[in-house]
Structures are given as C-alpha cells and as structure tokens.
Design a protein that fits this description.
This protein is of the alpha+beta class. It binds flavin-adenine dinucleotide (FAD). Flavin-adenine dinucleotide binds next to helix 8.
C-alpha cells in the first residue's frame, strides 16, 4: 500500500448509502457485474472510468515499466477507484480487478466524473481530495509509472526527469553504473547496446524508447491527450503558467469550452519555485509545483482540455470571422 496512513480515510473514503444514491444520477451507465478476478481496467488504459463499488470488492495494484507490481488497496462497497489523472484522460497507472467475491460497480467516465464533482459540492470535495492525494501518493513511490535507465547527472536524464516531475508523472531511475547485483541483472536483461540507448524510457505498458524527446515521452506515456484537430473551442490558451491556468479555471467554470496548450508542463516558471509566499490564500506559503498541480486539476474539473506537451508554432487569426487557429 502507498504509505500515508494518517490520511487513509481521505485517500480511501467510504461513501454512505445516501451519498451513493446521490452519486447514482451522475453515472455514465447502469451498474456492471464483474466475475471474481475479472480485469476491470488495466495499466496504460486511456479513458478508464472511475468505479463506485456497490457490492463485492475491487483489488487495485500499481505496476511499473519493468512489470514490478505492488498492491494499492482492496476497496469494498462505498469505495471508488481512480486518481486525478483520469479527469484529464491520462493513461491509467493502476490495474483494477474484481475481488474473490466478484463485484458490482457503477462507472463514471471522465465527463460524468466532472459532472459529479461539480454537481454535488459534498461529493465533489470528498472525491477531488481523494483523487489528488492518490496521484500525489504515487509520485515518489516505487513500482509505478515509467522506469528511466541511464546515468544520474547526465544532461538528457535530468531533462527527462524534470519533464516527468513537472508533469506530475511517477517514475523511478535505474543507474547503469549501479553495482547492486539485482540492478545489474535487470539492466543486462534489457539488452542495452551502449550509451546511444541512454537514457532509455520504459513505459508502464512495457514499450521502450531510447533517448525520447519530451513530445515522444508525452505521447508514449499517455500524458498528451488525444486531440480532435477539427474541434473548435471557445478559448485556446497558449501557456499553462499561472496566468494560463487561472484563465482556464475561470473560463471553464463559466461553461466555456477551453483548451490549454503548453510546450513543456503545467506551472510555467512558477512550477520551478521552491516556495511561493505571496500568492493569495496561502498564508503559510506553498511550493510552485503544488500550487500548479492544484490549479491544473481544478481547471480539468471544470472540463478544460490540457494539451501538454504541445508547442504552438503559429497563430492564424482571421480578422473577418474572428476565428483563430493554433498550429
Ligand atoms: C524560481 C522562480 C521562483 C519564483 N518565485 C516567485 C514567487 O515567490 N512569487 C511570485 O510572485 N513570483 C515568483 N516567480 C515568478 C512567477 O513564477 C512568474 O511571474 C509567473 O510564473 C508568470 O506566469 P505566466 O503564466 O505569465 O508565465 P510563465 O510562468 O512564464 O508561463 C508561460 C508558459 O507558456 C509556455 N509557452 C511559451 N511559449 C509557448 C509556445 N509557443 N507553445 C506552447 N507553450 C508555450 C511555457 O512553457 C510556460 O509554461 C518565480 C519565478 C521563478 C523562475
């Protein structure tokens, strides 16, 4: 289990029967019955639903790129699966299967999750807090996310680690020079041909890529969302720094269709700040990454689409129609 026991009841709250009843009207489909041991969602799945358990149980495990697995929790009636990445359609970092007694559960796809957390203040607070804490708990935990193989201190390794950290993506590092016997065996098994393969990124679904750039890493790890190039938005925001994220929260919460594009990560310059003391509402200060992470999730809660990492090369503005296209 991911250590954070003092917050267990916030990480894995159990909804009362009255709360389950009020959640029901937001579900994306009727309850689904799963046989004992049946896989409900798997690592790397995009568009995985949040499941609210009505009967039986769901066993949730995390797994990294090397197939190393660890249990997260076995949830029972009133508990729900998922973490904040699901709000933004990111690829799942965990696998859920029905427990030995099977399971009956209600699905909420991303759109219905958003409707639930916005439509019910009481459930919204409980669910959003749990989803954010679960994601934060995965960062810095072993056996989840990507495995980077390379050398500590290598410039490309630092760039890749920075990219994943700034995007809130869990990862671990295997140092090619590590003399530990287990690590040496693992590295040998990967068949690395030499420095030209380093850093090597291993995705949770087992796909490997040598020396990926940020755009390739974003796509392979399921950080970059699928984007319909034909779709029009009310507002396109270039840059997911504090200004872009604030605009996204306000515009999306007013019901506008919003897309935010950033070439690197959410948070902009502020994401690099160890401590911000002068932001409204945080009298004890907050790290830039924590502030950016909260705002990023808040914007997604209201439906803003986060197109990260994507660089905008050009804006084509038609002064006659008022339409603008980002390329
Ligand atoms: C280390 C550090 C500590 C700081 N501490 C504080 C502090 O304590 N208090 C304080 O008030 N301020 C602080 N600042 C300043 C604060 O971070 C900035 O004022 C703030 O981030 C500016 O926000 P912004 O959204 O306007 O722009 P930025 O934060 O610069 O964000 C711009 C975003 O646009 C993206 N972008 C740019 N061009 C493109 C393109 N073509 N396509 C796609 N994306 C693009 C970038 O990747 C970036 O994410 C600090 C800054 C740093 C670097």
């Amino acid at each position: 289990m991911i250590p954070n026991n003092s917050r267990h009841h916030q990480l894995y709250p159990v909804l009362s029967s009255a709360q389950i009843d009020s959640a029901r009207r937001f579900a994306s489909a009727e309850p689904v019955q799963f046989a004992p041991g049946e896989i409900i969602y798997t690592v790397g799945t995009r568009g995985a639903a949040m499941w609210l358990i009505l009967e039986g149980s769901i066993e949730v495990v995390r797994r990294d790129g090397l197939g190393r697995e660890a249990p997260i929790i076995t949830g029972g009636p009133g508990e729900f699966t998922g973490e904040s990445g699901l709000l933004g359609d990111r690829a799942s970092l965990a696998e859920g299967k029905a427990g030995s007694d099977g399971c009956r559960a209600l699905p909420f796809d991303a759109a219905h999750m958003r409707a639930l957390v916005v439509g019910s203040a009481e459930l919204g607070e409980i669910i959003m807090r749990a989803l954010i804490l679960r994601r934060v708990g995965m960062i810095g935990t072993d056996r989840v996310g990507s495995v980077l193989v390379g050398r500590h201190g290598d410039a490309q390794m630092i760039r890749l680690q920075g990219f994943l950290t700034r995007n809130g993506y869990p990862h671990s590092v295997l140092d090619i020079d590590d003399s530990n016997e287990d690590t040496r065996l693992l590295i040998e098994r990967l068949g690395i041909q030499g420095d030209k393969d380093l850093p090597l990124m291993i995705c949770p679904n087992g796909v490997m890529l040598a020396q990926p750039n940020n755009a390739q890493a974003g796509i392979l790890l399921g950080i970059t969302p699928q984007i319909d190039a034909q779709k029009s938005y009310d507002i396109a925001i270039v840059g997911a720094g504090p200004a872009g994220l604030a605009t996204a929260v306000y515009a999306a919460s007013e019901g506008l269709d919003v897309i935010v594009l950033d070439q690197r990560a959410f948070g902009g310059q502020a994401g690099a700040s160890a401590r911000i003391e002068n932001y409204l509402g945080f009298p004890t200060g907050i790290s830039g990454q924590a502030l950016a992470g909260r705002t990023f999730t808040q914007a997604q809660k209201f439906g803003a689409k986060m197109a990260i990492p994507l660089e905008v090369a050009r804006l084509d503005c038609d002064t006659r129609t008022g339409h603008c296209a980002c390329n």
